[in-house]
Specification:
Keywords: Signal. This is VWFA domain-containing protein. The chain is α+β, with helices and mostly antiparallel strands and 713 residues long. It is built from 13 helices and 36 strands. A seven-stranded mixed sheet has the order 6-5-10-3-2-13-16, with no helix packed on it.
Length: 713
């Protein structure tokens, strides 16, 4: 095969391969000049390692270093272009390069329009803004003339807003894709201590470092790194905010009169409650993880060990119905290990069930609190957050209040443990946030497995603060801006603990201030954000690992090499887009066809059996019924049957139909975190001298309603 043909074949494999829908997905990518490297199946430049280093937190941003090692294995100098997905809202602020262990800092550079070559031994980097709002930012790194048999390290210095979950900072690292041609086979994650030599405790997903200097993750996975957050002050405002200005460039000595701004909002820790009685309410519906009850009880055991011994506790589980896990009026001490063991045994003995009746669980908790006569009760609800919309938040609140009779209204805390929510947080529109708002409850998104696996190295009060210091939902959120300032997009109407809300906009005239107002547990709260000017990130950066004139390189500016064509640029950009939209995640989404199939094999045959049994009692029974079913993660959370269309009432038949509705189960939806309401009409025709018949109406518009649509991030 001629050399030119071989070059084209390699180029096609590199450029066209990721575009094929059936092929593996690429996020990060490494490109070389295939015209100067005709060897087939040979990778002259390879990424030997990839590290994500958390170097500390500066106010509202994490100092994150992405460090890669590139090696030129060929006998000639090589160019390379490396495209990297960055964490959401990341800013590229610095660049450094090392050769033979000696680091050289970079400096700001211009951006050239036309592709060109640059001096040997230079590395350029620039940030690429998301092509579509909500996608991930990216970094494009260009290496010019890497010497043969040479290895260099490149460090991208980033500022990234983290999430704050209880007593931990969290940062999500994007996946690198399934097709990582020339890229490192693993990702190393490091969290640096405050002083050299420190080995701080941190977590990567659900794995603790336990003294290790680093943890490894599969590069194709999106991973969450977390590390301890120490509260600076016990009495600081729960609503915390920061306003950052980016003035437009002006000549020296001239004050900018316009620019951009970013406002950061988050909820800090609230003073923890001081209860005299704790009621644990545990969700045992099928949408929860199989080990949730074990992780929850292990974490609560640690919590009980930190609470005063005179406190008592109670335990309730719920799915379609609620039941106490302790007999009669038994309210043992939180230190009573025998009672703890009985609760754990009851949870292990019981299977997860269909249904999520939180109202029944809170009503049972209220009655038992009244029987206990507690003066400062605390109800801790542990759930995956999947609640049916058919039972409204106000209805749940009324049922709970009625059950308390004259007892003190307890403090409520929702602990939500759902891996799919951990990535994007709890939105204010989510049903669990709506219920928490209506009840004035605290809410926290946690991975209880992490708390359950703690082994030393932390102060004894750490777990209490982590679980009990969660704030309530900030509702009725309003941002008050001066006329000269405008937002790029409207702000949401609320904020849930753990999330950082970043709003962007532009201004003219004097630097603006922003007023923030909202309600926490029904109480008005406000804060004024005053502007702090900061320098905008450089347009590009350049560093040298050779003898290049850095000043000349900075003046020449960032450019792409001429061989990096439009197709390669498009493929690299498309890979970053896939990385930000959940590419590689095994997510299942339900549609009318899937619902139709499972209704036909799970509900319709049971409804037919109910009809045949009822006809043995009443030959004239017939008419139309409508099954109303709410489904979350493939599980029936709520089921009702509208029997108004029957020609007359038949209680036994109606009860049988309700059980048929509860029999629906859709395993294909276990990774679908949307909530759906189904309306499934069925017509029953009485015999009238012949055989009984049934007809189900086809599912169409309006019969499958999406109640909760969450972004696929």
């Amino acid at each position: 095969m001629p050399a030119a043909s071989r070059s084209f074949a390699v180029a096609a494999a590199l450029v066209l391969g990721p575009v094929v829908a059936a092929g593996p997905a690429r996020a990060d990518s490494l490109h070389i000049d295939v015209q100067s490297n005709p060897e087939r199946n040979f990778t002259p430049v390879q990424e030997l390692s990839y590290e994500a280093i958390v170097a500390g937190v500066d106010g509202y941003k994490v100092d994150l270093r992405l460090r890669v090692a590139l090696h030129n294995a060929s006998k000639r100098r090589q160019d390379a272009v490396l495209s990297l997905a960055l964490p959401r809202d990341a800013e590229l602020v610095g660049l450094a390069v090392a050769r033979d262990g000696t680091w050289s800092p970079g400096r700001a550079a211009a951006v050239a329009v036309e592709p060109a070559h640059r001096a040997s031994g230079t590395v350029f980097a620039r940030a690429l803004a998301p092509a579509v709002a909500g996608d991930l930012p990216a970094a494009e790194v260009v290496v010019f003339n890497l010497d043969p048999e040479t290895t260099i390290q490149i460090e991208l210095q980033l500022k990234v807003p983290p999430r704050l979950r209880a007593d931990r900072w969290e940062l999500e690292l994007p996946g690198r894709g399934d097709d990582r041609w020339g890229l490192a086979p693993e990702r190393r994650v490091v969290v640096q201590g405050a002083r050299p030599g420190d080995a701080p405790r941190f977590w990567l997903d659900d794995r603790a470092s336990d003294g290790a200097a680093f943890l490894l993750s599969r590069p194709e996975d999106r991973s969450v790194v977390s590390w301890p957050y120490k509260h600076v002050s016990k009495d600081r405002s729960i609503l915390d905010g920061h306003l950052e200005l980016l003035p437009d460039p002006t000549p020296p000595g001239v004050t900018a009169r316009s620019g951009r701004f970013r406002a950061y909002l988050r909820l800090g820790a609230a003073p923890p409650p001081r209860p005299d009685h704790v009621v644990v309410v545990l969700d045992r519906s099928r949408s929860t993880a199989p080990d949730l009850h074990r992780d929850a009880f292990a974490a609560l055991t640690g919590l009980f060990d930190e609470l005063p011994a005179q406190l008592t506790f109670d335990a309730i589980s719920f799915a379609r119905t609620a039941r106490p896990l302790l007999e009669g009026d038994e309210f043992p001490s939180v230190r009573d290990r025998g009672a703890r063991d009985r609760v754990a045994a009851a949870l292990d003995a019981g299977a997860r069930e269909q249904g999520t009746d939180l109202a029944a669980a809170l009503a049972l908790a209220g009655r038992r609190i009244a029987a206990r006569g507690a003066r400062r009760p605390l109800v801790v609800v542990i759930t995956d957050g999947m609640l049916p919309a058919g039972i409204g938040a106000q209805q749940i609140g009324h049922v709970f209040s009625d059950s308390l009779t004259k007892s003190t209204r307890p403090e409520l805390l929702f602990i939500v443990d759902e891996p799919m929510m951990l990535r994007g947080g709890i939105t204010p529109q989510h049903p669990i946030a709506g219920v928490a708002t209506a009840l004035g409850a605290r809410i926290s998104l946690e991975s209880l497995a992490q708390h359950a696996r703690r082994t030393g190295g932390e102060p004894p009060e750490g777990l209490t603060e982590a679980l009990l210091a969660a704030p309530a939902v900030l509702s009725d959120l309003e941002l008050q801006l001066p006329r000269r300032a405008t937002l790029d997009e409207p702000a949401p109407g609320g904020l849930v603990a753990g999330n950082v809300l970043v709003v962007r906009g532009s201004y003219t005239g004097a630097p603006p201030t922003i007023g923030v107002r909202g309600k926490l547990a029904g109480v008005r709260t406000s804060r004024t954000l005053r502007a702090v000017a900061s320098r905008p990130p450089p347009a590009a950066l350049v560093a040298s690992f050779g003898l290049s004139d850095l000043d000349r390189a900075a003046a020449d500016g960032f450019t792409r090499p001429p061989w990096f064509n439009l197709n390669q640029q498009r493929v690299a950009r498309l890979g970053i887009t896939w990385a930000g939209r959940g590419n590689g995640d095994e997510r299942g989404f339900l549609d009318e066809k899937i619902f139709r199939n499972y209704l036909g094999i799970r509900v319709f045959p049971r409804a037919r059996a109910c009809f045949n049994k009822a006809l043995a009692r009443d030959q004239q029974l017939g008419g139309k019924v409508v099954f109303e079913i709410e489904v979350g993660k493939g599980e029936v959370m709520l089921a009702k049957v509208d029997t108004a269309g029957l020609n007359h009432r038949e209680p036994g038949f109606e009860a049988c139909l309700l059980e048929a509705a509860w029999a629906l189960e859709i395993p294909a939806g276990r990774l679908d975190d949307q909530i759906y309401r189904l309306r499934y009409p069925v017509v029953f025709n009485p015999p009238a001298g012949g055989r009984p018949a049934m007809e189900d109406d086809p599912l169409g518009p309006g019969t499958v309603e999406l109640l909760l649509g969450l972004p696929n991030r």
